[in-house]
Amino acid sequence: MIQLNVNGRTYRLDVEPDTPLLWAIREHVGLTGTKYGCGVAQCGACSVHLNGEVVRSCSLPVSAVKASDKIVTIEGLSRNSTHALQKAWVEFDVPQCGYCQSGQLMAASALLAKKPKPTDQDIDDAMTNICRCGTYQRIRAAIHHAAGTGKGGKGNGSIIHMGAGPTGHEVVMAEADQPEMKA
């Protein structure tokens, strides 16, 4: 019998000691927001917090988790999606397919707990989760917005809507950054 503290509730589970934490959470606790992606701790879809640290639950056996450890899943981040990151994710249209987003949010919230005003480099270093849809720039902008650093605000050039200019060499600012044109 394994005892886990998940989102502030204690669960006693009859699972094998080598059962990955991911499957204990999904199949035995019944919280399915944490996703299975790769199974080898590379993609981050399975990210949860363990005592405030982001961990990949697909490769962590339940035997490595103490009864006193505190596990937080995406369901425990906010009961009604009012966490600043969840709001920023919606405002910046971060998800496309959405599959990796619970892991992305968990990694981002662990980052902000440690560094409330992260730099771009802090975000790059902390956000190692894979997004097959490539929403990394929107993730960065949403994290800055949730942190209140001002870098993530719409219309200040920090969003990915940038590309080559007419000659293919210069960079053109995001549409929101362009001076208003009179007809």
Provide a descriptive summary of the structure in words.
- The chain is an alpha+beta fold.
- The chain contains 6 helices and 7 strands, in the order E-E-H-E-E-E-H-H-H-H-H-E-E.
- It has helices at residues 21-29, 74-77, 84-91, 101-114, 120-126, 136-147; strands at residues 2-6, 9-13, 47-50, 53-56, 70-72, 163-164, 171-172.
- A 5-stranded mixed sheet has the order 2-1-5-3-4, with helices on both faces.
- Strand 1 (2-6) and strand 2 (9-13) form a beta hairpin.
- Helix 3 packs across helix 6.
- The chain is globular.
- The termini are far apart.
Q: What is the CATH level 1 assignment of the largest domain? A: Alpha Beta
Q: Which geometry do the CA atoms define?
A: globular
Subunit organisation of the chains: single chain
Q: Spans with pLDDT under 50 lasting ≥5 residues? A: 153-183
Main β-sheet, spatial strand arrangement: 2-1-5-3-4
Give the second-level CATH assignment, the architecture of the largest domain: Roll
The SSE order reads EEHEEEHHHHHEE
Give the biggest sheet: 5 strands, mixed
CATH topology of the largest domain: Ubiquitin-like (UB roll)
Average pLDDT works out at 86
Number of helices: 6
CATH homologous superfamily caption of the largest domain = Beta-grasp domain
Percent range for β-strand residues? 5-15%
Throw out a few tags for this protein.
single chain, about 180 residues, alpha+beta, DNA polymerase, domain 1, 2 domains, two-stranded antiparallel sheet, globular
